[in-house]
């Protein structure tokens, strides 16, 4: 262990488990540590301060450990200067490019720290030729010759602002982060999510919904429509299926062959689905279908009428698809990124694919709630490192119904 | 295939799939058939009539096939006379005893058919010494020397009355039987179940609830309490856990360490659980705890106050248990059987163990709804041959909340 | 019910449940029927013959019912002549286009029936200008002016050849179609699937694998690699994730941060993932990475080395992606269709997205097995109308391990 | 916060997260703390030492917090003397009885600490009249007048011995404790469990199996039989169902109507089940059925032949039951407790009910593995505070097959 570097960190290091994770990671990465200084906070409102020296076999290993510890808010006493290398080809990063987290990040090119725009994980950091600004960029978008930050020198990851200290009086919302389970007081959870949405709206931030077609199959389309009309959905990310089933159920009163008002199958269900898509293709787009009076209700209609953004990105299993759907997934990701500014809260309902896609591009600081009857979806999202992810395992149909009941005055299914 | 016997059956044999199952079963049991006569109904309201001869290698095989076909309503042209043999020992049936289904059954001792009391599956049929009456009996309850029907001769299984013919105008309730899925219009399902409960109550029949502790964990205890007070639960079957968590949450405001009003953990959760049980043991029983003013709210309190029946049967995982719990499961089953008369509808919520136990003793003619977030529970119940089983895969907390909203005027969680 | 039409059907109509479904569908579609003739087969090897007249309120309704009944093999006594209309625009069908099933289909333009090429569901049927041939086409691929079959006149759907008659001696494979359950004799199922694969290979047909990244996460990559080398995978459909995790685990020995040989996490897991993708982007393609000696093992390496086809189609959640990935999903679908000829068996493992995508384009006559630990995936595939779908709910890792053990002589994990 | 008490703790307090949990719990219990002293270990092999003063509104609250912190190994500087009160009635503890954890515990009656026999959670601690020994006792077994420890004074909970320090070289087994997931390298997990079983056997400790009927349904009975014969199962806890289905499949070749060798249904499945039970009731017991040559193979046969202990405890859903089944669940629990001494490893397969029952009575120091295809079972067990619980979500049939392949030389299914 001949190579070493000293880092410092400050904060609620013990009761938040931060320092335990730091020590854990050093060993996980085959390093060693010496605690040089530990000033413990005497009471639970006091911060602690730690200085520790990390050592490993090679300088590269030390550097990787440091990069890792940065995600916990540990920063080198001597931060160094960012190394820049040109991208060797369009769509290719230099081999040792710095791979981003979804936390706010800064780089240091000379004496000063500069913010990196657009926190997004698994990207590179691109610096303008005049070195006046830096931003994250996915590998597919880099151009040959653009300057890419390489190695971990001169990069600082800013930890999330601490959640309010835990106390019997503090917000009850946090508890949901303690793992996921279907055995929770669900009516209470709905109310807490409603409360959070009201706060977000009051702050003037946008609410992003990411949804799957089960919203329509479970009869929750009317609830979501009401929430859109009431202003509780500013941006919607979805696939072809949500929009197509929503439109099908409004053109034909069915979704995948289930008559939503009566609950039983109707003639030639699948056929309705592809006919609905063909109809909108005839109109030209969903907005034109609304304008032409073809589409008169439902989720998509409400989005068009309320001039809300939606981004529909296609998938390999799509029929049609609808004319509004991005069939190129990389273009779809770009459109999703473009719709993120201003989003202060994300709710993801009944879609693993689009939830993970959104989790990939969402900054860690945006709180998100994932709602699904399938625990795997909810767990997977949390595993992707979305620090603010909260999972609710419940029934989509009843969840949306009750959320609308909480947020929309006079909401009552007919 | 030297041995043969002819059976006849009448009804909506094709569109209900009955005849397909008959033919299927003959082959499944290694037999063969010849269709002697087939009078097909010309329109969908007409009945059909079939006579077919079943053959197999041995007379025993023929007899087993006939026994099987009886469950579809096929009866031998020549029904025969029931064979009676004495039980060789307490708790033991003769080797070739007739094993019952949960359909209504008749036996023929001389010229006339006699009803068998208490349809219950996997039992024997016991005939009184004077041969004046017959009833089902589980093997554990038979006494040495009691007369037991053996073989399938002289036994007739009555098929369920046909559900209303399928038509666009008929009740929508049926559709749920078409498999189980979480992707259903759930709010609609709740309303249909509520409607069915109103009908059952209007007919003066009892509603049986079978429930697991998740009712309490998901915060649905208040909804169930309201439903009991409103008369929508006449009998409750459960285990120690439902009652203990309900009582715990009412004595201490917690269930398994979750503060139900705030949603977060409270001091020493598990301890509360066993303390609640000890408290009721100190009082002597749940009813005495209510009388002594110790227990002032919750599901069990509502049952006591409204003088409703409840049967709590223990399981090997129980703490305590509460003094009202049957620790002997066979005695528990007897108590459950004793509470069944008058039950016209059964709803099973969040418990695989007690749901299957109830499914075992419930006559096939009692409609039952199984509600669980876990598809396996719902599917398993259907697989046990409960012909009237309807499965709803949804969230327990929200389900009970909405059911109370439908059935209890002015119901609103505080 | 003033409008009517007579259809006939022949086959094992009762024991296969075909006729029950026919009657069911007529009522479901708000029609009525009269059975004009019913010649029942006397023994279970005899076919039956039915003639029935379907009536409904409008001629359109009658036509829709007939279209529906065709999927059961019922054909009009008077089949009519197919109506052709030109596509009004690129990517748009005429409003009343005939929407295909995935069964073999024929159309009748004048006196003779002509095969429709490429059975695929939810498509239109396009006829060449000289009316010499017809093929299915997805709506996105139709060009303005192309002739599209409209309405159900002159269209005949050929039912699947009947499976071998059910008998105690017949193949055991069928049983799996009887619903899905994790409670099956799994080791036996694996052996039956292996047996089926040997038969397919012996017939010179191709085996299609559709796989998700869990194959790599569960350590099953080596088993699949061995199966590819042994010739049990001719075509692979997957997404960016399977390929990227496979390549990552071969370049870095990890998959999503799990060290596959030791089973515990390694430094900066996610980073490895995006670095692996960047590495292949640097090489230009997976094949070039193999050629340059960069990629030396794993699933993708085995596919390249054995010159097997693979189609990777992107999704909105992709990182990178790998240079071989179709980022346009419609182009990806086209590439998948192009790889289907010759496929005689499809096995879908651990991917709902690509399984459904494949189910959408696969003719109904190709048998498919869906393997997943999540019952929802398996059920959903069956619900999409894939008539030959067989579901196995089991663990992917152990499944592939045992399949390789059955099919690859001397297979033993090191 | 006028009442206070000082505790000390020593060990790897930070990297194991112990101290974070201590601080967390103080706040959770509405207390406050002051860190009086904190000597941090400089390297990861050094222990730390903390002294902190806990304060709360009332002395009772302080006491409860202290009781809670004891589970983390924190002990009061001044431990106090245990308070003893007589049980007020048979089966009832004094109101403020000390409720046990499943950790090793000591009490102090005068100057010295005395071990409490039989660590088991949710029990009371009973002291002999001469105060020479102490043991845990479930509430149902206490007799009026027996001395019961009340309050937390004079009680010390001993933390588990620390697992080996985490390092790249250490045992890989631990990793599984990091949450449960079906996306793990499963073949590897099986091998690690096999390795652990060999170690346990080599130490002369017993292996406890807790199993559900799915072992038989999934065709894993033969694998378990082989493991019993090879000495890898010393004690089996199960219910009526496992034994009955095992016996049914050996008497009739079926389990719940599934022919296990062919995989398809056989005549009158359910009937076989109850006939098998009646047969054993005729014999008198399972052992007598083996002796009389009636039962010639299977799990239960292997247990009898190898003179291994088994405890079958009934449940309310049982048919029959078999004569060996404890129908009284409290007696069943006693029989299970009596079979625990010497058990050094527990494996729980496909049974939530018996797994939790066993988890309730098992000391925390016995490592346990829970195997189920249903994540809920595995998660629930971990939630019950079983500190050594490891969850494997996989297919039971393939799991047992591969485990037998690892442990039984020449094991090969015929």
Automatic annotation (TrEMBL), chains A, B, C, D:
Residues of the Arginine dihydrolase ArgZ/ArgE-like C-terminal first subdomain domain: 104-188
Keywords: Lyase, NAD, Nucleotide-binding
Domain Arginine dihydrolase ArgZ/ArgE-like C-terminal second subdomain: 191-403
NCBIfam families: TIGR00300 family protein
Protein name: ornithine cyclodeaminase
A GO MF label: nucleotide binding
Biased composition annotated in UniProt, kind: Polar residues: 169-179
Cofactors named for this entry: NAD(+)
Source domain of life: Bacteria
Region spans: Disordered: 159-179
One Pfam entry name: ArgZ-like_C_1st
Record-annotated LOR/SDH bifunctional enzyme conserved domain positions: 5-102
